[in-house]
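One-letter codes give the sequence; backbone shape is given numerically. An example follows:

. . .
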Amino acid sequence: MNRIKQLFNIQYPIVQGGMIWNSGYKLASAVSNAGGLGLIGAGSMYPEVLREHIQKCKKATDKPFGVNVPMLYPNIEEIMKILVEEDVKIVFTSAGNPKTWTAYLKEHGITVVHVVSSSKFALKAQEAGVDAIVAEGFEAGGHNGREESTTLTLIPMVKEKIQIPLIAAGGIATGRGMLAAMVLGADGIQMGSRFAASEESSAHADFKKVIVELGEGETHVTLKELAPVRLIKNKFYHDVQALYAQGATVEALQELLGRARAKRGMFEGDLVEGELEIGQISGLIHDIKPVRQIVADVVSEFESAKAELQKIEI
């Protein structure tokens, strides 16, 4: 039995990334209804908005779903309290020390998964008592690791160090990518960018259109002094690079970034001044489809690619 399917009680070992401004209850419930694990992205929600999305998600699916919580956000104590009060069964934590909240969540019967970008932090998360690890390579969209380890190298290195189930993330949007990750040692995959370009994603239609038009090399990780983030190369991105060319200070970068720039870009559709976060794999995403079709396509391609492996010789 696949360890991720068993851990979450799902049909396929496919997890949807809990992306800010993309991952509302509509996306999370659609992924869960399609046989994967949907995640509500708490990072872009005020506590009471999160509560509302959890309640709506429960009405929209009778399948397991979870909540992704970046621990660097304010109101973290209130958010954790809401997760317990609303009887959320699965929580993915990221951007912080897993020791801080894992014990509290597990005391309340919650399955805890932590997102890491290195084998060192994977070990720390395992020691903190989490139930599974997401190892996210540098190809990923949104907030990223500083180590610049790619998924191809990261997955086997993490696999070598941990005993608990491993989910691969970063640069995966197809069945072939899923098979490759699992051959490298992952028990399942997490996809963000592919689900951002779905009908059920809460992202603005103009942002989704840009995703499917992107080609190779049209994203880049920047703002490492604040929190590394992979961005589409729009005007805002080029303004950031111009600031770097002038010897930008952290304060100057913070001033340029301002507040709510990610919301402005991904949720409100400002493609010029907004912060547009997406993964490198966007170059392989060519259409906006319903979640059910995305999951079906990934599973079908996984099975056909697996069959083709038998023909490969060296």
Observations:
- The first strand starts at residue 14 and ends at 16.
- The mean pLDDT is 96.
